[in-house]
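Final report, results section. Input specification for complex C-07:
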Amino acid sequence: MRVKVNPLQCTGCGLCELACGYHWDEAFSLISSSVMLYRAEEKKNYMGVIVKTEEDLFIGRPEGAAAIKLGELSKGGGGGASAKPILIREACDLCESTTGEPQCVAICPHGALYLE
Amino acid sequence: MDSMYYGDTLIVDLDAGTTEEVDFVEADEAGPGLAAGLALYEKYKDADPIIFGSGLFTGTPVPAACLGFVLGKSPVTDELAVAPLNLFAGSEMKLSGFSMVVVKGTSPKPAYLWLHDGVADVHDASAFAGMDTWDTTDAIRREMGESMIQVISIGPAGEAGSKLAAFSINYWGSGDTAAIGALMGSRNLKAVALRGLGMLDADDPAEFYTRSLELFASARKDSGFAALCTALGTGDLDKWLEPIAHRARACFACPSACFPFVKYNEAPTVMESSDVEEPGMLLTSPAAALWLMDGGWEPEAASRALEAMAREGLDMVRGARELAGMPLTDPGEIASAVKALEGSAEAAWPSGEPTPAGLFGAWTPPLADADAWKLANMAGYVLGVCPTYLMLSEVDLEALAGLCQPAAGVEMEIGSLADLFG
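Structure output:
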């Protein structure tokens, strides 16, 4: 089981990042989440979502979604220069300490994140 | 008062180019959000400040907790007026570490305020003078080397003091219908740039989070641009835009997606990141688009006009009303017509009515009776939640206000909101 991304359903609200950050810190921020909303190409309305696991990044881009092994990455994920690089964030643990589905899946209003 | 940065206030002196952090203890009595903003204005009234603020929940996973505000004396009405900071501007301001920012004085040369991670600096913006809001946003992001900085800027209209001026949030204009953009221009404040990687702590985080999720579950699920059009009685607006519609975008933490992105410099079906750097426009003002649609404009030409207004730093609602009766198609003629708006100070909203006075003015057309809209504005600006979402989603306002206790140990009832506004 893992969290996957249906990128064209994403509206860029960032609730997934907030929910995941809460899971790790019991506070609200955008720096510790295992999920990162890619929104650095704002003028192009180009958005995507990245989920970090122990083995790979699941990258949901508008043109498609796929997992890329950490060793095969050429760049660390584009969260912006001041964003904490996703490669040094905690890996998704599927919110194992909580009951029910992962927080990011539960809170996404549009089904852009799902468990499979 | 550490929860949610409640009370953490920055005083900016543009005369001297200095900043000072203060703990605004009066916020306990005044209340959060806009209530604190009004109290701060009163405290520093002699300086006639511009206040950038956020609500108690701004930046948290409360539904639509994206809202911040700019408060100042409107050059149009000479009364205090508030304009919304939506998209990611309100949340980024809160996460930058300041709940409220009081800007006093006038800079001797163009300046911009840079807020990030609990640090505030006044920077020289002389090189950006005369730039439109798109170029200003790009220039500040380039200067700071960070593409996700949120930029509240003014364009040539604000610098010239046009009463049709509005500040813009990044590239997309704003709901500033009170010429706060001209007020910024009169103080030589070209922009406020925001980047925040702070962390918001609640008094009782588990309770706050659980009850926030319950609000999501209880809200209507059919909000969004199409639902907004229906609620406004403008069911054709989304159909009119359909040929150029790309993807809708939401503000921070909002389950609704009220803003359609339209593409007219490349096919709207293009989803990948192409070589076209500026393919279109995020339409943040349904009211402005409605004026142009009703005036007989084609959607592409109307979107180009709205882009030009956002670039110039013009109020898109009043600008669209001015242009509604003269549908244009040629991009050059559109640009010239928009540029000519800078000199117009007579535009009113809605048609035939005087420019609305009062604190809230007109951001979007009312979605219900005036009292309900006013209540949604009061609740929204105090709590940091988009008033349009409150109207569309039919969220229980008492349940929303009940989150103040787990958030920051503050008691609030919707019935007593009006007391906070005197």
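The first strand of chain A starts at residue 3 and ends at 5. Chain A touches chain B at residues 8, 11-15, 18-19, 22, 25-31, 39-47, 61-63, 79-84, 106-107, 109-110 (CB under 8 Å). This concludes the modelling results for the funded period.
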